Amino acid sequence: MTRKARAGTALSRRGFLAAGLLGGAAVVACGRSTPAPNGGTPADAIAAAEAARPHTGKTVSARLAPGPAVLDLGAITAPTQAYNDQLPGPLIRANVGDEIAVTVDNALDRPTSVHWHGLALRNDMDGAAPATPEIAPGGSFTYRFTSPVPGTYWAHPHTGLDTDVGLYVPVIIDDPAEPGRYDAEWIVMLDDWTSGVGSSPEQIYAGLRSPGMSGRGHMGHMPGMGGESASDLLGGDGGDVSYPYYLVNGRVPAAATTFTAKPGQRIRLRIINAAADTAFRVALAGHRMTVIGTDGFPVVPTDVDALLLGMGERYDVIVTAGDGVFPLVASAEGKNAVARALLSTAAGSSPPPDYRPAELNRRVGTVDTFAATTEVQLPSTSDLALHARLSGAMMRYDWAINGRPYDQHVPLTIQRGQRATLTFANASMMFHPMHLHGHTFQVIKADGSAGPRKDTVIVRPMQTVTVRFVADNWGVWMLHCHNGYHMDAGMMTTLEYTG
Ligand SMILES: [Cu+2]
């Protein structure tokens, strides 16, 4: 069964409809912090890793103020939480080697953190406890770090269920030496949205965790009722939550943002999936996309008609703009809904908000489609085998790694200089976008050839995905599913350096 509830206040056996309301839900705290090995994180080991990064001597400063905000999403307004009253929050942009200094003033009523997703940065600035302390309500903290590689990144809290509110910003690291092979740049952030307009993330989580969810006879869940469809790309179920809205750059489809360019211009799209529970299939009507990179690392340029992005993944693509108005459509996989924005290069009208371009069903790029360029491929040998068995079931909502939820986790351990093979073995019937902090890994395809370099990779139901990485960044690093609800339910462990 792969269907979700359709309407009303239904909790279903397989899913939760965020438009509904549940009374009396409680916030469930996430897992405990784990002490670092060897009595703490040696400052010299972190300093050594930092010294190995390039440094320009320049500092780029920014301020983020996470706090309550009433956001205009187009046809609706949402009382929620956001950075600096914007959705997405303000772009943070620097060159490779610049010091990035971001002061976070926490105006939320709860602790927060800012995790710099995908950046192989110093461990004490990662923005995930225990490596970096959380910021208390009313408190302030300045993250200072440099990025060793260019690319498309983003930032979000690593605290509780705050990945499902309006707290996210794009982070772009430029390489000044990169030849400008495009005329314009379009940053595209995708999201699934309920905060302030449907159930709160805490209500959704309580509903998903409710032991009575199965067989309690709530309305709504019957196979075929919902107009929902299974996702072949994801190997079945598209997610746990049906959202009231799906957004591109903070707007609903009926009030989409428009990116203006000239016909014939080469546009670099930087597509970021900031959703909590939704994978998106993205296509630009009337255009092919040339994929040039993912998760901050170049791939051999490859043409596709559409692209699959799990939560936390990024893709960089080049399109040559046609003449007219073209919807960029992000189809919520298995959820029968779309998000969209518009590319406009000439006068014209756009199709209706629910329009689905034919490109969505042509050649869809997934992780298996791409390969890292040879200069960024990692060595093909390894001297350590690490394993992450992914388990859990929707009805029990007991997501775990190696049989343990985060509050009982056994760290994966590694030593500096080791080259590790990490095998994700998915023993569940749900896809999991697995994310490793502080490193990027080389995906190894089923035939043994090199896939792309990534920090977040979709592992389909019952699939095994093998990746390889080099232990060059001392610390205590999170390894987790980027489904915000799976993560909070315990699908997280740590990678810890022991020497
Ligand atoms: Cu998951």
Automatic annotation (TrEMBL):
GO terms for molecular function: copper ion binding; oxidoreductase activity. Residues 77-177, 186-340, 389-495 form the Plastocyanin-like domain. Keywords: Copper, Metal-binding, Oxidoreductase. PROSITE patterns: MULTICOPPER_OXIDASE1, MULTICOPPER_OXIDASE2, PROKAR_LIPOPROTEIN, TAT. InterPro entries: Cu-oxidase-like_N (IPR011707), Cu-oxidase_2nd (IPR001117), Cu-oxidase_C (IPR011706), Cu-oxidase_fam (IPR045087), Cu_oxidase_CS (IPR033138), Cu_oxidase_Cu_BS (IPR002355), Cupredoxin (IPR008972), CuRO_3_CopA (IPR034279). The keyword Membrane does not apply. Pfam families: Cu-oxidase, Cu-oxidase_2, Cu-oxidase_3. The keyword Cytoplasm does not apply. This is Oxidase. It comes from Mycobacterium adipatum.
